[in-house]
Design a protein that fits this description.
The protein is about 50% helix and about 20% strand. The chain contains five helices and six strands.
Length: about 140
């Protein structure tokens, strides 16, 4: 069973409205194969949240986002706030995908997965900044 077929099987019974969100999720999953993500189903739709990869913050220049641009650090901050706020109350079904298989989860575990991925990105950026300082200082 494909990742999206499994998500649909689990999510459709929970959803009351905006079932078309699943088509947007399908398109995102197809465009981002192998990307770990969290999938939250509410009565009124879904939220597909990619986990930040380790290189997400190495270049914090603005990138296309929603209807404009945003820095990756800001996108991650807003996504974390969403996971720890509004979705916590409205999320009825929490799924985690490691990029290959979907598993039922819960809000706390999904928040932890997102925070761990964010910490890896922050640490990679910190190491890169330290290397840049050493290069500038010692050539």
């Amino acid at each position: 069973m494909s990742i999206m077929n499994r998500i649909e099987e689990l999510a459709r019974p929970v959803m009351v409205a905006f079932q078309s969100d699943l088509e947007h999720d399908r398109a995102w999953i197809k465009a981002n194969p192998g990307t770990p993500f969290i999938h939250v189903t509410r009565h009124s739709g879904t939220q597909c949240i990619p986990l930040p990869n380790a290189n997400a913050l190495l270049d914090d220049s603005p990138v296309p986002h929603l209807f404009g641009e945003a820095r990756p650090s800001e996108i991650i901050r807003q996504t974390r706030a969403l996971l720890h706020g509004a979705l916590l109350e409205s999320g009825k079904l929490w799924l985690y995908c490691d990029g290959h298989a979907v598993r039922k989860s819960n809000a706390q575990t999904c928040q932890q997965k997102f925070d761990e991925a964010t910490n890896r990105a922050v640490n990679a950026r910190s190491r890169q900044q330290q290397r840049d300082v050493i290069r500038r200082r010692y050539g």
